[in-house]
Amino acid sequence: MMKKFLTIALVIALVAIGIAACGGEEETPTPAPVSVEGGLPASAMEIAAARGLTPDDIAAALKTYTPSGKVDEYLLFMSGGHSGNVIVAGIPSMRILKNIAVFTPESWQGYGFGSRESEQILDAGNVNGVKIRMGDTHHPALSETNGDYDGEYLFINDKTHARVAVVDLRDFETKQIVKDPLLISAHGSTFVTPNTEYVVQASQYNTPLGWEYAPISEYKEKYRGTITFWKFDRAKGRILPEESFAVEIPPYWQDLCDAGKLASDGWAFCNSFNSELYTGGVTEGNPPFEAGVSQRDMDYLHIINWKRAEEVIKAGKYETLKGMKLIRIPAAAAEGVLYLAPEPKSPHGVDVSPDGKYIVVAGKLDPHVTVYSIDKIKQAIADKKWTTDDYGIPVLDFDAVMHAQVELGLGPLHTQFDDQGYAYTSLFLDSAIARWKLGGDDPSAYALVEKTPVQYNVGHIAAAEGDTVNPDGKYLVALNKWAVDRFAPIGPLLPQNIQLLDISSGQMKVIYDMPMGIGEPHYAQIIKTDKIKAWDVYPEVGWDPIAQAPSKYATKAGEERVVRNGNQVEIFMTSIRSRLTPDHIEIKKGDHVIWHITNIETAKDATHGFQLGGYNISLSIEPGETTTFEFDAVNDGVFAFYCTEFCSALHLEMMGYMFVQP
Ligand code: K7E
Ligand code: CUA
After folding, report:
1. N or C: which end of the chain has fewer CB within 10 A?
2. Which pLDDT tens digit goes with each residue over 210-232?
3. CB contact at 8 A, 470 and 354
4. Is the CB of 601 inside a 6 Å radius of any atom of ligand 2?
């Protein structure tokens, strides 16, 4: 019945196109309708047979193939791991669209190769005077309004240095890097509160706060972690460190966090996996970390009431350490900011259900997911059903707050949700995705439904809008750590294999393999493409993309000039197809050069690049953008500069010389 309807619809559509194309002038034969009655056309079946494709392969191809010129329904934002960037791809085609430079210089985008704007952003992430030019991105977080992605901003953390970056999705460029002044590294980041009031970050490998020294023998007394709430100002598009605060926590190794929403709005949850307070020392005869941190059957879920923390800050019950407001453990415990709950066993992910009622903790070394209920947590707090840990923090009674447990398989890590009441959890050791029923109020209704294998060692998963209040279902991406035998040999360093699964109905199916050769993505989020309102070109010619306002160095055609002031030379240049003006730059060795370039194009995609040999300068100047770089002319000689984007038939002519006199 459905097939018949499709055939008829196709015939009608093709006839309509035929008529429209004729324009009533010429008689063009109407193309023969494609019929799917009784299977694919013979020619398609021949191709499938020749390539050895199974019916499942054909279905996967039909679900992911995206015709030329068609735009994907979703965008996938993946962290790039220790490549220090963020990778954007389309779903279902899995075509890579951009590799957004964040913590690591990237020359295509002219990020960290001279442009003053990008150097200032990167320098803000330096650590104690040490220039830092790499990072380890883990968890991208799209900005949210009422718990739903709004498509305005993207946040991403750097695990190595406890830094958070802000990417503006109007131009998909990094605008800010903030460095945590208390932590040297931090893993559980970034997670946003439902209206992006805060970007949440939790420590992992704890050290003395403020990058101080203390011997490892003083671990329990002197080493600490924090859960940091970076205040975000949406209008400015910036994190405001001076309005941010941190909650001090014991040196359990915190792992991942999630912000509460709806029923649990105002709360944040972070788990941990070294309640043993193990400190290693294999060469001194101690067990390795892997054994030492896995001795106990239970670790601690950290439960933070951030709305209460705001009140505690307002009441002045904090210290300021290295410029960061810090609620110390005693105040956090006494004021109802921080609670713990036992969780089995060295868990990895914590994820809040779309309605905010349930908090899912994945076991890692326990085959279950454990589901907590926010109502039960609140009740246990009201009833003071707790003991305390060695730091005086209330530890809520496990049986009082635990709502349900579901046995899924080996190595459960991360959970996502769909629109049908299912949860999906990655099983690292099983190399599989488990689909299970969220049973709501009835603990006996929670049950494993099915498992689908993925290759291999799956870490995070991302479902379409799968950690919002309003998930879409449809697609799920598995970010698999190993590729092993999946692809052609490329030497010992293999890509990760990102796999796309169809979760729209019936059995979950892998429908696409996407080796990721530009990083090691950890986590991803999937947003509807039509929520992104990116600019085609900058709003005005002469735009400063950092201020998102007209630049004071904007240069109009005809106003190009070189201004000398002592040994400082300032250049105001324009670029347009197909010339750079001026094209002769005369300076002297020892000059300090400040060089502004305005791309005076207004046409979509009319980007001009700029590279200057010998001075490590690489820029990307998008239509309307004004950018600046500066350097000391330390070497004399004749240097060529040129446009690096093949922008027109006369692109090769888009060059000039810089003459540096001895
Ligand atoms: Cu590797 Cu979220 Cu950093 Cu899990 S994390 S896999
Ligand atoms: Cu501009 Cu090539």
Report:
1. N
2. 999 999 999 999 999 999 999 99
3. yes
4. no
